[in-house]
## 1
Amino acid sequence: MKQIYLDHAATSPMHPEVAEVFSQALGTVYGNPSSIHGTGRVARKALDEARRIFAGSINANDPEIVFTSGGTEADNFAIFGTAAKKAGKHIITSTIEHHAVLHACEKLESEGYDVTYLPVDENGSVQAEDVKNALRDDTILVTIMLGNNEVGTVQPIAEIGELLKDTDVVFHTDAVQAYGVLPIDVEALHVDLLSVSAHKLNGPKGIGFLYQRKGTQLAPLLYGGEQERKRRAGTENVPAIMAFAKAVQISLETMDQKQTAYQGYKEIFKNILREEGVEFKENGTNQMPHVLNLSLPGIEIESFLVNLDLAGISASSGSACTAGSIDPSHVLVAMYGERAEELRNSIRFSFGIGLSEEQITEAAQKTAQISKRLALK
Amino acid sequence: MTAKAPQDTRVVVGMSGGVDSSVAAYLLKEQGYDVIGIFMKNWDDTDENGVCTATDDYEDVIRVCNQIGIPYYAVNFEKQYWDKVFTYFLEEYKAGRTPNPDVMCNKEIKFKAFLEHALSLGADYLATGHYAQVAHAENGETKMLRGKDNNKDQTYFLNQLNQDQLSKVMFPIGHMEKKRVREIALEAGLATATKKDSTGICFIGERNFKEFLGQYLPAQPGSMETLDGVKKGSHDGLMYYTIGQRQGLGIGGAGDPWFVIGKDLDKNILYVGQNINHDALFSDSLSAVNLSFTSDTAPTGTLKCTAKFRYRQADVGVTVDFKGDEAIVTFDEPVRAITPGQAVVFYDGKECLGGGTIDRVFKNGARLEYVG
């Protein structure tokens, strides 16, 4: 059975042109960018060109881009790197962050830091006012995500940035889910640190970067060679970085048409559910165009997701526990409380390249069928 | 339903990560069925590092399912298990009885909540790695037969299954010896081929039973005495002991070993007696409640059959008199250490007819009040 992949927010297929750059580079660009010979210089040149593309994509300067192994490392680097450099023990974050941020903050908490976890409203949005009220003299870091990966809510980052821009507080945003889907300008957002990962926008897995505003101090996570101006030791993964750069170029060029297409997919999906008489509610508002999180009253998510998979549709919900069963989403808990029925009946569809309106239509029809069948029980 | 070809028949296999359910899934796949492997998580055993120990078992399920080439999923029944099995388990211990959570788990979770889950996935059948067999009689009824491996037969734990449940169940390894199951796993190179069988009550696992129970029920230490009132020591709490138990009494000295022969809940006394065949351990009849039969037509009046009073015990000839919701089971010969809370399961030759929970125990027409 042909799969309809509607889980692009979990990870995305590599764009064919990206794969082409990647496989070409694997065979040819094998030099170490730090080497002083010609082979090394070829790699160094590719690295610099890629860095320029990343910097340009978010209105930053080249030296402000630090390559990492992905979004998790970028988030950890931002949080632990700031904590190690700044005096002060208070950090502000939100209850709906990705675990790469939440668990890093919890680790610091266990080491004596004070962490404020800001609540969100029913739409999954943090209030800038709450950030302001939570600020203390010893606050060193505010870390709030740009676009939520589960419900797609876009957070008021520019507003919070405005609030923090004249303070000593470091402002980090996890932009892993928003990068490539929404335009990002670090100057307009007033962020000091911003995390990004390649595999969410049709690049390879295992590569990402942290934007580090000039003047923002970070202690490195890794010690070793002097790569990335001593900020991130380890020989750069040049082919992956080159492929990542290609993915970013394509994302920027196609952003408008993707936004239009994905908004269209959402409407098609919801219209079919309405036509089929399936009751639903959209979780979150002000959403990123590629995330559609629906609550379907009457269904049990564990059975629903398996049914969808058996029908050839890949979607997701919450996060799987290591023993495979589904733990309630901490994002939905933050939005609706621990006893809300949305925890048991919500599902995330996320869109990306390679989809067609026909596939969306088919997926929505199957979703409607399964939903009606399960709701009868 | 039976007319469907295997490739059109969807079978959900309950997979524990053990060799039996691995081979059950493997055999069904070989027979051409549309097989789905599902791991059940019934107990939250997340340790202090946030790691759930079910992870290792699920990892095995993943490896085996990928080897076989079937999709795999997990489902969480922690809440149902707590409400239906664990709560009952604690209540029974509080009442001084020795419950059988596996019987309850099969009745309420595996062949109820899990069966419903399987049906919601479009399954025609639910299969498990139990050592039991189903046979379809001419009248359309499904009968439950003992597993071929007499040493492994698990019908004792399945005694509460009814006709509706049995009609949707497959036991793919029930016609095999355990040894053969291992061989098949080895021949197929399944990742669980040499995995050790799990023992004990599933949610307790390898942990110390006393410690575990003590976390949930307050233990009241008391006196350990003979029926004549001779003090032989002290006990740690009546719930920790079961009728006929020898281990852990701590009574030294010469002569025959000592055994638990009864409990007085009101006085909090544990009665002990010397000799494995102490007279007080023997009874000649019992009353059973929570009766359930595999057939839709439950027996009435008087029934001559055989019965088991605990797992892996040899059958005993019995006469069963049904009286309303209760049955009086009279043994052909006295039986040792009948334990209230355990199951009494009825057999007609190879067929398991059903069973109930042992409630009270009698000898010479009088209730053994310290037993049950």
## 2
Amino acid sequence: MTAKVLIADDEPNIVVSLEFMMKRAGYQVLIARDGPSALEAIRRERPRLVLLDGTMPGMTGFDVCAAARADPELGGMKIVMLTAKGRDADIARGVGAGADAYVTKPFSTRDLVKMVQEMLA
Amino acid sequence: MTSAAISAPLVLTVSGLYLLTLFAIAAFADRRAAQGRSVIGNAWIYTLSLGVYCTAWTYFGSVGRAAAGGVWFLPIYLGPMLAMLVAWIVLRKMIRIAQSHRITSIADFIASRYGKSPALAALATVIAVVGVVPYIALQLKAVSAGYQILTHGPGPQEEALVWWRDGALMVALALAAFAILFGTRHLDSAERHEGMVAAIAFESVVKLVAFLAAGAFVTWGLFGGMADIWARAKELPGLTDLLRIDRGAGGAGFPYAEWFGMTLLAMFSVLLLPRQFQMMVVECVDERHVKRAAWAFPAYLLAINIFVLPIALGGLVLFSPGAMDPETFVLSLPLSQGATALALFAYLGGLSAATGMLIVETVAISTMVCNDLVMPALLRQPWFGARTGGDLTRLLLNIRRAAIVGVLLLGYLYFQIAGDAYALVSIGLISFAAVAQFAPALLGGIYWRGGTLRGAFAGMAGGFLVWIWTLMLPSVAKSGWISDGFLLHGPFGIGWLAPESLFGLTALDPLSHSLFWSLLVNISLYAGLSLARAPSAREASQALLFVEVFAQDSGQGREQAPIFWRGRARLEDLTGLAARLLGPEQSRRFFEDYARETRAPSVAEIRADARLVDRVERRLAGVVGSASARVLISKAAQESPLGIEDVMEIVGEASEVRAYARALEKAGAELREANERLKSLDQMKDDFMSSVTHELRTPLTSIRALSELMLDAPDMEEPEREEFLGIIVSESERLGRLVNQVLDLAKIESGHAEWRIVEMDLRKLVSDAGRSTAELFHQKNAELILTLPEGPRLLRADPDRLTQVMVNLLSNAAKFMPETGGRAEAVLREEPGWFVVEIKDNGPGVPLADQATIFEKFRQAGDALTRPPGTGLGLPISREIVERFGGSMGLVSQPGQGSCFSFRLPVGREEAARNDSNS
């Protein structure tokens, strides 16, 4: 059984790399390119894990994360926030929104894959 | 018509229960105040407490007045309504002054203004006592009459009661107890009597509701509404006249003088009656409450007057002429119809109107008598030295208590002697006219610095004497106690001295006549004597503190008022004096607070300087009044008398200090502002850095991730590898472009950019830029049209930079070209004084939400998917460049219908351009 992973990011080239990575690691990959469709995909597809960009149009990743966490039916879903903003305040915001992990861009592909595998083990 | 009566024990029990309720409310409010949870600290309670204006005179007298003169009862309420319109200005100033000087009464207020003169305080007290005692008698009479009507049934009253069954005496004694309990709780009269205020507010509610209930009963219970009363009153002979507005108390034709006189009188009295001053000024918790009272109190007056005419007319219609005193209609109408419960309630309303007035008036008067008549006399006694002797607080409280009992008994005595001599209304008006004598000195005193003690004293004394002669004596004579011959023929046959027609003035009614002459004499003496001789130093200094009260106290509790005192004082003398008058406990707390405020290490180390003396004097003024406090301080300290030059000098110093404080404040504000600006700049820099970081990290992320993936996956398919490498190359280019543009923008913004300014042809520049970007449009199968004028368009600018702007705008347009049918147009045209370049496209347009910010950094429109690669810095850089040459950029766009970016440059701005040139 392959786990579903949702990639939510508005930068097409980053999506290309994340998609390649996750597929290679054996996961079923879903893609969303803005906040509202990310939330919709989460509700519809119930992925085991979401790689969520912090700054997306329509609805920020922080808000998507908070909305997902407020939904009791989505318990057990892992959320990894990815963001290019590296200030402490942003990290605090991500953790405050209820993310399981917070990864700063640019990231190490190996570390990210390892983290995802551990979370879904 | 049935005639009912209520048993005396029932009426007494209900009255007693009502008074007990008052005691309970007052006790509750005082207990709350002691716990620091005041119940009177709101504007509604303040407004209701002003309702003490409506006494038994209102409650019973207005109806009597309306029954005799129609709408002629109205001016007494129009005056206060008008007065409240200006209350925000005048009353607020009075309150601010009273709180700053710890004023205890109206006599104290006036005396304090004119150099804290004991003589003026005494005169004002005498006027108040003489003017108000008959008014107190009137309240007792009203209670007594009401009681008789309830217990004996309506109709003419017969025998007098023995004293122990005399309701009026019982009420007087009960109220004396109330006033003593709740009016002399603290010695410091400048402190509020919370219990009393709460009880008065309650009474205002009771009398309003009771009167409205009686009015509604008459209007809808006995008649079929207001219109019915009107109609039936019109049928009666003699009543028609009542309903006409152009009818005075006696004569024909609209009585302008009477209306004016009455309204003016009522305007003054709402501010100047001792009880009004007590409630409005002394007991005021927060001057902002005046704002609400300014409309709510007139509304209260309106409400309590609504049923006056209906009750009066109803009584006249239902009772046969002369059978019933109109002043008792409120009680006799319900009673005659057997509505005993309502009659009892209406009686309670009248009782509340009377008791409210009695309580506040006696507390106010007793404070004046104690501070301004008894204290000065005591201070003259050798044994009453300021430096010797023990605690005086008990003595002072007892004086005040005795004064309360004395004033009430005086009122009772007056009632016994003169009880039936006047109609209720005339006593009230006589009191009003007496306190109107305060108006020139008080109002002049808070707006005119030139008013002097001599002027104020002579004015008040003169006006008061005229009042006695023209109003007081005639009313005594009309009661039959002295021969009334002098009324007609003047004293000793001197006709022009006749009290009600001085100098042959016969055109006015007695009240207007008295008001006219007394105020004329008062104002003339006040203004004339004030102008004749300059004020003394002490008067000038107090005048300044009163008139300029708002300048000294900016309302933030900071004391910047100048201190007019020089001399030497010993701390022990001041602490000793304070302990005697405040009591040891209060005194200790006062000095401890002062030590903390002046940062003295302990009470013993307080500096006995002018500031301390001034503070002690103000504190004592709250206890014994300003005049007595002045005498006490002058005995306790060695003063150097101040000359007028000293006063000017102190004022100068104080205004220097104030100017310095203002300058400091201004400098502080400037610093704060600069700090705010720096902070916001800092914030902007922070945001910029954050945005740049974000923009740099995004391509870096793709580059790093894809490179790592290629490194880790040697088995990758060739097409995929090529795609990844392509992305890496384009993201590297994006990164390089971004770095260049950030540096470029930073250089322009910091003013370090190099500008090569030459005379150039804008037409050629636009056409060249079009040619160099033609390929971009070609790739999108779009066409670019250039619409240019004939011949060169010359201006001085940097052609490389302007080319940068053109290329940026054109490549933006190319980026947003639709898949098919793309079309863009570059236009150069002229407006007066300007060259305008427009680049129009038929792309998707700019969303409305983004239009305002599109020229800001990193504000690319649209989302990453639909948006072509760009750094978000092209437009901001273009704007910086265009603005550098005195121009501006613009955008007009309807989403879905393309956009039009434009920039304009001034024609012939050579000078500026040359000066800016640094190449």
## 3
Amino acid sequence: MIDQMLAASPNLMNTFLFFTIAAAFLMVILGFVTYAILAERKVLGFMQMRVGPNRVGGRWGLLQTVADVLKLLIKEDTIPKLADRPLFILAPVLAFTPAFLVLVVIPFSENLKFADLGIGLLYYIAISGITTIGILTAGWASNNKYALLGGMRSAAQMISYEIPLVMSVIGVVLLTGSLNLNEIVAAQENWAFIFIQPVAFIIFLIASIAELNRTPFDLPEAESELVAGYHVEFSGFRWAFFMLAEYVYLFAMASLTTVLFLGGWQPIPFLGFIPGIVWFALKFILIVFIMIWIRGTLPRLRADQLMSFGWKVLLPLALANIFLTAIIKELINSF
Amino acid sequence: MIRTEEMLLNVGPQHPSTHGVFRIVLKIDGEQIVEATPVIGYLHRGTEKLAEDLQYTQIIPYTDRMDYLAAMTNNYVICHAVETMMDLEVPERAEYLRVLVMELGRIASHLVWFGTYLLDIGAMSPFLYAFREREVIINLLNEISGGRLTFNYMRVGGVKWDAPEGWIDKVRDFVPYMREQLAGYHDLVTGNEIFLARVKGIGKYTKEEALAYSLSGANLRCTGVKWDLRKDEPYSIYDRFDFDIPAREEGDAWSRYQCRMAEIEEALKIIEQAVEQFPDEGKIMAKVPRIIKPPAGETYVRIESPRGEIGCYIASKGKKEPYRLKFRRPSFYNLQILPKLLKGENISNLIAILGGVDIVLGEVDG
């Protein structure tokens, strides 16, 4: 259906339908964010022998995040006197818009996809890079030393980890011969790339956690060092936008990992009768759970250790992986 | 040409990792610390001055509020000082109870340190695990003294309350439980590569420096000096127990961590033996006059608190209040080496070093 609509002429009906679907999808994402935050708190609570939220919305705390968001909405919007006002207002928007933009290219199932870009993967990586600018802007505009340090750390970290992230994916791209995410999923019909490209998967997972600023790479907002990092001066809904961006990126990154390495909507053999979207959701939830699990387990790296790990360990590994993949592919092709 | 500037960064007093209301003014170049100036006094309550107008028994609750993580040792040091002045013989049962609660307090204090230290360097879960075990200890101490944090348990000449029925058995059961959990901590944290990378070689000083700065406790023992007053100047009944003084050679945050974790084990050994030797009956208070009036003169006693050497100096004029009272508060002395350690370090290391020193601001500020 979406395929046809993408090709159809832009008449009023089509435009309306498209906006309806997009709005529905937005609701799905916001719903995910709401419950991802709850799930994170519940899973962490379970790992730390606590109960987690259990008051608002029954014993599972189902409305806890909703209540939190409501509270943020009615909070006073404060902007520090000495802050750079236009940039301060712009920063959350800069950080959070790309988070939604990247979702366009991700194929959630055979039928549910929004854009069939030939350079889907490149688009994702290029757009997600913009968030760094938002965070750096936030750090600079707050006119706060902690925020500035957090912003600088974040810029350094995101640039350093974007490179191994991209490099690790090139192995997959070499095997598929395409940057189109649909084709990458289609290429995993028999074997998911996690089995063919295990090294790339591990590098990708580590780099994506670093991209998401999550433990053990949560230096930009290291609570115990920089108090809150780049968003220390933000309050109310501006702050909520940063949090929203963070969790939407979690959604996007977990989706991308599913698509690139776990075969997207492709079912496990003999279980093809279960619809593709369920498979996607299962794999996706697994990745999200792993990320929460890591957060509950590991301490934080130091800034310089983080840098040297990215440049001296992950990048050479990723390059070696590309090299080997290329050689093996050539050898297989020539025999 | 890039122009760079040094920047003043104010850490604290309401920063999450300064363990209370400690403030430190940093001069930083990027993330490199050029100079660090600690500022203390935000929790100063003038305990020593207040004590000059109080009777000796009334001073005891004030000591609870100095090192509030190991209040039992603070209770003990003032009682011990007065007992030394008055030449009092403390009943055996009371001494055993004192040792038990002090060693339990030592474990509780080290558990808080372990949890918050890991929290400082970014691991969230160990904090909650450590506090689960601490809760068991706090409940035990609550049962015997009626307080969870400020116990006010000891008196000059003995202790206020006898152990309730079954308390000793609960302490006996606690020892294997704690050992099991401690093994779990080692599995979770001690071998973790990221943790090792964060603490190994961080905040290093030598034996000579440690002695010159008059450090004590694990901060001294991590440099290889086996100095523990429980062994070297036995007070109470510590000479009856068989235990080791854990020491390491490296003098960095990692060896301080190892020392403290080993001290938990040694404290468990002491508790185990004390429970075995615990007298079935006996008095818990010596014969003490209703109003305590130590003879005129001066005395100084020192004991080993979880944080180091805690001392109490009393100058008495034979009245019911001390003429002058002074506590040697180990956290205060241990903190002195901080500016030296921080010079040239990274901001992330600031947290790892400050946390490793194990300070309690109530004690630093007095």
